[in-house]
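Example 3.2
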Amino acid sequence: MVPDSIQKLSLLDDATQFEPAGDQPMAEAATAQPRTPKPLPCISDVSTPAGKKPILKAMMTTACERNCFYCPFRAGRSKTQRVSYTPDEMAKTYDTIQRAGLVEGLFLSSGIIKGGAQTQDKIIDTAEVLRKQYSYRGYIHLKIMPGAEYDQVRRAMQLADRVSINLEGATAERLAALAPKKDYWNELFPRLQWISRLRREEGLRASVVTQFVVGAVGDTDLELLHTSDHLYNQLGLRRTYFMAFNPVSQTPFEHLDPVSRQREFRLYQASFLLRDYGWNVEDLPFLQSANLPLDMDPKLAWAREYLRDAPVEINLAARSELMRVPGIGPKTADAILRERRRQRIRETGHLRALGMRDVQKAGPFMLLDGKLAEQQLSLF
């Protein structure tokens, strides 16, 4: 039975494309390197709270009663091969793969059949079997279904290291254009609020993420990042994921143009500025179209406008000011602050020794003891 169950996983390849769940799209877009072949198409290297791991991305069923306009699993699409697992079957299949050393974690989602609550029960039951019957203590990421009940959300958070519910659209209007049978304010957003409350009031440790479909229905980067900023600051989301729209045959959106992966990449860069660098949405360099420039990373675009004539003095700047300089992130900023307590920083080589990788990129925007670093770089 298990070999057949494992064989069914080969039919879940679409799930890996439509559920990033910790994938590294930024690295892929930046390096354009091919992925390392995996034993199964639904195994991906993803970022987890414990670091990068090979994760099995699985679905309880590829059947679905919803008709999301972009999704390969939508109701009525004949090209989708429908496969389903019972909780016991999925748990046993994962245990077999995990004991073989092929994976170090599970991301578990599902199409929706007989409502979100009943589907959520099957996801939770699978995690229960893994934790109790198989004594599995490793990484689990559980999808929260639209319409899941409060106690189901709580139990999922007790069992999982991470949970997610995909908003898909930046606003209720965008979601209605993407997935007309989903309700932004009744089915989706309240679950994110519940998760935030459960983390705050009951101390549940599971982190939470969400995902947006980018570019299919006229959404702008400003809308996507404004919502992301709210989710980070008000609900404590660990990360927002972006999936550049790509048309799927036999869906209402099959004739739409695909969205550039570079746009997805820029959204990730801007999202991290909001989450990790203390930026506000108003700081980001939006074009008149309310989208980010595709030809330059948003931090560099901002620096060219604001730091060319006002470079940052590395020996005096506050941490937040240091992180405005292209090439200086939180770790490098902290290293600079520590070093400044010991001695003044006078040379670009000193910055390299502190972990700054691209001093050349940062040169026009920083001073070292009152001298423009770019001039020092020209001497080498």
